[in-house]
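Course exercise 7: structure representation. Students receive a sequence record and must write out the corresponding structure in token form. The form below is the worked example handed out in class, using Bifunctional chorismate mutase/prephenate dehydratase (361 residues). Read each field label carefully; the graders check that inputs and outputs are placed in the correct fields and that the protein name is recorded exactly as given.

STUDENT ID: A-19
EXERCISE PROTEIN: Bifunctional chorismate mutase/prephenate dehydratase
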Amino acid sequence: MTAITPLAELREKIDALDAQMLDLLNQRAKCAQEVARTKMAQGEQGTFYRPDRESLVLRRIQELNQGPLPDETAIRFFREIMSACLALEKPLEVAFLGPEGTFTQQAAFKHFGHAVKTVPVATINEIFNAVETQLCPFGVVPVENSTEGVISHTLDRLLVSPLKICGEVEIRVHQNLLSLAENLADITTVYSHQQSLAQCRQWLDKHLPHAQRAAVNSNAEAARLAAANKGVAAIAGIAAAEVYQLPVIEKNIEDIANNTTRFIIVGQQISTSTGKDKTSLVVSTGNKPGALHRMLEPFATFGVDMVNIESRPSHQGLWDYVFFIDIQGHANDSAVAQALISLRDKVNMLKILGSYPKAVF
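STUDENT ANSWER:
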């Protein structure tokens, strides 16, 4: 029979381990401050945040982890440590689709950690403007949803913006009905972002067929409106319910259970290769026979995996389209570089939107 260790002894051991961890955390923080001073001395005056470096650190933690903590828990813990260490110099400012409590803010915290300063702006266009004018070094924007597809405003802005995609993050989206109303029958209007309204279309048809549906810039804005009117409801996340102190009338009303939104990080940094990267690009072929085949051929020739392709109007002419493409690998990787060189000769326009680390979790 295995001997049972007394609680007092176990608690004493935990206290000792906590003291050791605290000491090690502060040693790591001091080392991070040294890194900042060294970068300053070497003339690196920009942001100290490096998405490629952080991705490598988190993947190393995942490889080293032997449990019993799950990999995701260990990664989240170290993400927060890195976020706090970076904030010792200056909290990183990140623009997001506001107000407080949106899924975009949740994505910002998941990617950067909670020590960043999230800066709410009203529209996706304003997020790009905030980063382009250097009011914030980074911005977080939604780019596609597993249920409703691409976010057209984001793709259209990427087409003309000088910013680069620096990273990606995925959020499992649970939609909830929030309201001060006591009964569903009392709700006359449902506010939410147009994507969220679409993601809950079947539920709304069944349970609130009488209610008007009104699209607003964000789910958090919808929650703010619902908090001011008892006959109004919002579709939003739990974070918005907490911020605006709204009761959750119904949970998880999304029509598809694995509803997930992918967000991208936009900034002016160029990430180096980490070995597990994506490259995003936009291509224009012109309306010519065989153009699409010629565009795809270089990826097959050099063995580059294409993971996504979307077409959008180019706004340059009737029935003229551009293609947004995600491929595996970094633009500096040999196979990808050769494919891109070959591609340039086969298309009218090629713009590399960024090479960046794939989401770690």
